[in-house]
């Protein structure tokens, strides 16, 4: 496998990138400027699987990691729709996460490892990125996480 063939890598890992989710409000799922693509915040909902609730209350850390992984899969779906293929991604620049949690919850960084570990698993060294992990009092529709990313495309 060509190390830059991300689509083949996903196939080998048994990971299916779903169709891009349609926006639930007045925004676009991804926007390109120059060689950068910025996604809107994507939530933890793929097909019939949805993770809702607060970390530290209804949701544990492992489920939170799964929610973060689902969010970045949806981010990649938005990038793929815009770029035509994930093979167009040169590197992952940033991954920013909002974690729906109780005020006492302090493991947002651990939850975000679900997203970060996935990016490195799929993209290798080009998947290493800057990151933000922030706890919030609530998210739309009580989703457990919302993540947005910035990627650089090949010229």
Q: Can you put this structure into words, describing what you see?
A:
With 155 residues, the chain is an alpha+beta fold. It is built from 3 helices and 8 strands. The strands form 2 sheets. Strands 1, 2, 3, 6, 7 and 8 form a 6-stranded mixed sheet that branches. A two-stranded antiparallel ribbon has the order 4-5. The longest helix has 23 residues, at 61-83. It is globular, with a radius of gyration of 15 Å.
Offer a concise description of the structure.
The chain has helices at residues 6-13, 61-83, 108-123; strands spanning 30-33, 36-39, 42-43, 45-46, 49-50, 89-100, 130-136, 145-153. The protein is of the alpha+beta class. Strands 1, 2, 3, 6, 7 and 8 form a 6-stranded mixed beta sheet that branches.
Keyphrases for this structure?
3 helices; alpha+beta; globular; 8 strands; 155 residues; 6-stranded mixed β-sheet; 30% helix
Broad shape: globular
Order of helices and strands: HEEEEEHEHEE
Cα-atom Rg, whole angstroms? 15 Å
Helix fraction?
A: 25-40%
Quote the distance from N terminus to C terminus: 22 Å
Main pleated sheet: 6 strands, mixed
Q: What is the SS-derived class? A: alpha+beta
- What percent of residues are in strands? 25-35%
Uncertain ranges? none
Tally the beta strands.
8
On the 0-100 scale, what is the average pLDDT? 96
Give the count of helical stretches. Answer: 3
